[in-house]
Amino acid sequence: MSDFLRDLLDSQLFPIKDLLDDEDVSEIMINGCAEIFVEKGGLITPVPNKFVDEDTLRAAMIAIARSVKRNLDADNPRLDARLQDGSRVAVVLDGLAKNGTICAIRKFKKEKLKLTDLVKFGSLSADAARFLDRCMYLGINTLVSGGTGSGKTTMLNILGSKMPDTQRLLVIEDSAELQITANHVVQLEAQKADPSEGKVEVTIRELMESALRLRPDRIIVGEVRGPEALDLLNAMGTGHDGSMGTVHSNAPQEACTRMETLCLMGETRIPADAIRRMVGASIDLIVQCSRYQDGGRRTSHISEVLGVDEHGRYIVRDIFRWIQTGRDPETKQLIGEMVPCGYVPSFHDKFVSNRLDIKKAMFRPPEWAVPQLIQEKKKAA
Hints:
Elements: H1 3-9, H2 17-21, E1 25-31, E2 36-40, E3 43-47, H3 54-67, E4 78-82, E5 88-92, E6 102-106, H4 115-121, H5 126-138, E7 142-146, H6 152-160, E8 169-173, E9 185-189, H7 204-211, E10 218-221, H8 228-236, E11 244-248, H9 252-263, H10 272-282, E12 285-291, E13 297-308, E14 314-327, E15 334-340, H11 348-353, H12 370-380
């Protein structure tokens, strides 16, 4: 928690002090002064905390906005900002929000996770973690896909931190959140227009243009949600191997379609079929993050993109995927395992030529998983 939030605790923010201090709470959702929910362990539950009244809640939100040098008033009824400690806050004032002032605070995680932590949490298998580690070393262009709160940013932090120390990484974000631990990292953050302070708007697309001239080896776009998708694909296809980004999507195949749609949002005159071929040629790997009904965040798929077929459909092959095998009757937690799918990635020869410990036997599925994998393959067809 940042210093400015601590300064506010004894005044406007005291109703949620315990929630801000609780390291197990990942997000605080305020739906008006009398209704507050939190996310804990991936599950959303109500808490008894309340603000005295709407005026008190509104004053607290205005104080937060001022602390990050932003206005929150009748002329500016929305706030989307990064706090000093890296946490994110989103506010919609009453009037637009019928419940009263609405606020969501996604808290900053102090601990820096590693692939081994994801294995320990059950999000990845040991073989899948080793595979991703070697892919990052080789510079495999990767897209991290998932829904809101599925762990995309965490995964991108971990993967970005696995690049070789001899390379220069440029990170571009709308709001700086990534905490990539690497030897040579440059972070660029987009800027919203603020005439009162003489600030002009600087978009992610403009930062991409600058980044390409700043001698990057790899480029990461924290969240691809606009026409900057085309710039990222261009970077992936023009010598910046190992570039990455995240996109909102529920499945690997959908992630490709999502990137295609985002590319077409701009003023580009490139035909849709050319964009589709560019998506298929530029992205090598999709890491799909999912949040399951038990609140667990798991890597549901690791898939290779092989281009498009004669009908213009994306060719996506699962390398690893998570399979549910049951549910604990007491804890209600899902039981499952990430297994290889029997597909050897087309770039396996790169592992061999670089003498990396990725053998073809790693991709052989266990016998118990074969029937389900075959069934899923038939459904997809």
